[in-house]
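Weekly puzzle thread! Below is a chain. First person to post its structure in token form gets bragging rights.
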Amino acid sequence: MSLKNLPPLNVDVWRGPNIESRHTVSAVVINSSGQIQYAWGEINQKIYPRSSIKALQALPIILSGAADRFAVSNIELALAGASHNGEPEQVEVIQQWLHRLGLSENDLECGAHLPGYPKAAAQLMQSGNHITALHNNCSGKHTGMLATALALGEGTQGYSKASHPVQIMIKKLIEDFCSEQIHETDIAIDGCSIPTYYLPMKSLAIGMARLGHAENLIAAYRQAAEKIYTAIVGNPYFVAGTDRYCTLIMTALNGRALVKTGAEGVMFATVPELKAGVVVKVHDGTVRAAEIAMSFILNELGLLDPQSAEKFCKIPVRNWNQILTGRITINSELKT
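Winning reply:
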């Protein structure tokens, strides 16, 4: 089916019998040759991919030789593509990885914040230990960048700057996978201090499609993409964590798709069996709308079984007493 120029998706939040909030969503499903399968809203608009693009940012770990030189495990590769919860198991892996590199949390340039998982945050505060950059949800990605810098023979200080060879390499890879040149006016700074690039949704979707089916790209890119994809979908807990959408949906998909959230209502997916990439952008930046929109699209693509579709596409809303107060639904010319 080829459907173009559909209206934007509407994600409605109901309280009782009435709609209380509405989130407008643009989304696109495209294959690695650039053929559009589904499109809602304005897919040529530029967006910042934020953390949704971490799988592409992890490719230099393979391409630089860092993975072989430092015996990087699949769990570590998954953490390089993660926005993790800061749970103890996740933090411990990153700490050990840094130690193997001869580095520490002091070398991370992502900044520090409390673990995103409330239980992990409470445990850290009760322990009396300090919050460090290890707890930053991007610490795995940054450790991968440090490993890449070492493998390239470059200095590690300033690895997060756009002028550093690691970031130049990442920028070139994004351009190649997305078939889109990045201009100076497209470059901004992400929440973890590395560059983020303002690119058309359609181009970003092509890049994600090629992650799973690197059509017309060189063999080294194809091999690196396969390794990153396999590591991420094979270790969904380390990509996000307890009670997180990316972990739950990838577990349900059992390797059929890579799904990664980003800030400001952005979410990407890679579906190798369909040679497809998916990009979702919620215009008001709301995460809950991105999750149900992505679930709706994955279901339209035939990837969810009936039980998973019920779980991820029809979301109940409950108050602090766990009383059902409403629901979250999605409106489209296509129906689940």
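Puzzle host: Confirmed. Bonus trivia for everyone else. The mean pLDDT is 94.
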